[in-house]
Amino acid sequence: MRLLRFLFITVLGLFQVGLSYSQDTISLNTIVERNQKLIDEYPTEKVYLHFDKPYYAVGDTIWFKAYLASGQDQPSDLSKVVYVDLISDKDTVVRAMRLPVVNTSAYGSLTLDPLVYKAGNYRVRAYTYWMLNGDEASFFYKNIQIGNAINRKVITNISIKGDETGGTPKVNVQILFKGPDGSLLRNSRISWRLLSNFDEISKGRENTDDHGVLTLSLTANQKAAFDAGMLETILETADAKQITSTFPLKNAFSDADIQFFPEGGDLVENVRSKVAFKAVGQKGNGLRVKGEIVDNTGKVITPLESQHLGMGVVAFLPEPGHTYKANVTFSNGVKKTIALPAAKSSGIALSVTNTDPADMVLRITANPNYFSANQNKNYYIVARSKGVICYAAKATLTAPTFTASIPRDKFPTGIAQVTLFTSAGEPLVERLAFINHGNTLSLAVNSDKKTYGSRQPVKMSVTAKTNNQPIQGNFSVSVVNETRVPFSEDSETTILSTFLLSTELAGYIEDPNYYFNQPNEKKKSDLDVLMLTQGYRKFDYKNIIAGKAPAISFLPEQGIEFSGTLRSANGMPVSKGTLKLVVPKNRFYAETTTDVNGVFRFKNVVVPDSAEASITARTSAGSKNMMIMLDGSAFPAIIKNVNAPDEALNIDSILDPYLQNSERQYRLATQMLQEVVVKAAPVKKASHTDYPALTGLSMLADHTIDTERFKGCNVMISCLQGAAMGLTFADNNFFVTRVYNSGLRVPVAIFLDGMQIEPTFLNNIVPADVESVEIFLKDDLGLVNRAYGTNGVLSIYTKKDVKKAVTADDLKKLFPPNNVLTFTPQGFIKSREFYSPKYATPESRTAGSDLRTTIYWNPKIFTDQNGNMAFDFYTGDNKGTYKATVEGTDIDGNLARFIYRYKVE
């Protein structure tokens, strides 16, 4: 088959061939210009967080550094504020942090208070206000497991296996119970309950066997009950204590699925094409698969076998009148037959070969039906990377097949998106390819020795070069005891995997750093298969060509800002009113004046987290009878955890080496009182039984939220959205989730200290003033529901002051002036420095015990004009292999990560 001769017109040559566009609906130059306009007028931003460790224990401090970058990976100075949230596995924001951005970076820490945090699967979310204009999926996300070594009263390990034979779904459970010292809890009494959507399905009491194992066979009417199920166990100890453990039962049943992805998007009859596939198990992790593709006559077309994490690729030529299916067997024993996408009778295909070190080779093939209908028509080939068009050409379809080469040096390191358009600007086929130019930015880390003793000084240096030339850069370094903190480098979330893959592709990426950890030819091939199976998340061409701009609701923050409207008592805006802002905690003071519409704005406010602020207003005539209406802040919704397949079921077992060290560390560092018996009159907590309006509710609430859960949260309605289990927030109302999902839209009744309030009033409640919240998913007697036309109850109780004489100041607080507004905004978290002890004297080398796993953390590694930076620290008492991880970027946005190891003997 002869090669078609195309007339290529690069972007630079477009203006010399204007006559050739007479038959084109839209010019190639228009596509390029509109794409560039989008980048210039609506720049994108992304965030990456470098952590000192991959997981933690309760009582630890999480240290992290935020890197802000533009869509093209260059350091971004667009936003001066970044938000970091810690979210529990119940989709609750347990800590919200606001950090100032300085020189495109931010530094922060979070101490995991044992009174607030429990062992479990958490995830960290990071974003800027500007990023709220896009999809929440574009935020930074990272799963973090948190264990508990301080108050572990029982160690458990559960195995779950579903069984659907016989028609009735059944889950067989085995739970190993150990004491905190690792001893087997033999013949121990265990009470258990099976819950599904907060309803009790079954319950019972059993004993563990001689090996400390509890064996249960759980049944339910439907498999879905297990998917939403939770097993609760209560261990009854010899001293009459009860220890509760909970275990999710989702993913109990073995299952598997496989999807097929023709290269370019479609199979086309009479065109040999590559078809990628991806097989996953019940959790969403990749699953090995083998099988064969057969046609509708039963003829075997080609065998298939996954090459990496359930992904692989086959190639065959679809014939007219034939359909195809895959008969596959997964590594978990599941067998399935899956139909492949139907081949188009008329179409054009795009294939990319990305193995040549100099060029990316394109092959465009039209089948006979398509070629005869579209011969001599114009087409555009456009390739972009990180949103920027790097290559554009025009071609005329004069023969069925064409092969062309695009120089790889036209693209930066990252994903290249190659698209074939009609002359009307309609995208036909598309292919993603990864371009890797190697270590454009290279790091070298060295220490003065390879082996050290306990509490000895370590002198370490970092050298950064770009294209073998010294470069100034912004980096962070973490040094951890890898023996105590083992973790797969392939599974790490890194600056490379985040900026080059996760922010570009949609969906879950398993072991994202595998493709950058010592890359070789196999990993290059595996990465190309990932490009074939993973969706692209950039702004699509149809909107670009149509000139449809993205909706902008939020501007980049340049600091903390308070805005609002000043109104008179009759609601009219006050023009030229004077307002004063005071933050007593840090003695901040600012003044401003309203405009003709009564709008005011305080910019670049300096306010610490949880500090109280007040605004005082008066008119030019000195009047104080006014209302200060403060604008609210936007908070992103909590979406489903895209990295849920990485969540761990048995955290105690997975983190065992780390938790053992943590237990020793905290036992030696502090003498914690596990239990204190105080003989005094108990303080009665507020509850619904104190208020007649809530008469008839169950004695025990379905869920109770204590005041500790509201620490670090400053907006009540936002706090409840994350913490109110069993409730769904939608359309500015709370609903019982079970009822809401059934289609019924009856809101819950909301009470504040026994008085019904509207959901909007929640914004007036200061979370720090709340003692507890009770949630009732059912009103058994129906007295409250019938009285208020609601379904379910959410009751909030504020803290009560100890009885004392009322002073004049107390009365003033009860009746604040109309021209004064006092509030508690979300301020910047307090900056802390990592403590690195110095063992410079003989006495210091023998005092105490140093079992730290993070031996050094420094988020402020800036290489000088010679590309160098040096620092020093001391080793601790733990022996083993230590891993120093350096990550960061140079001033041009080139990314790097380097691992260096030394030993302590």
Q: Give the fraction of residues assigned to helices.
A: 10-25%
Beta-sheet strand percentage? Answer: 35-45%
The total strand number stands at: 52
Q: What characterizes the major β-sheet?
A: 5 strands, mixed
Helix and strand composition category: mainly beta
Summarize model confidence as the mean pLDDT: 88
Total number of helices: 12
The best one-word shape is: globular
Radius of gyration: 31 Å
Uncertain segments = 1-22, 671-679
- Distance separating the two termini: 68 Å
Multimerization state? single chain
Side by side, the strands of the main sheet go: 2-8-7-4-5
Describe the structure.
This protein is mainly β and 905 residues long. It is 11% helix and 40% strand. It has 12 helices and 52 strands. The chain has a 5-stranded mixed beta sheet. It has a 5-stranded mixed beta sheet with strand order 31-52-51-34-49, with no helix packed on it. A hairpin with a 4-residue loop joins strand 4 (81-88) and strand 5 (93-100). The protein is globular. The termini are far apart. The relative contact order is 0.13. Residues 1-22 and 671-679 have low confidence and may be disordered.
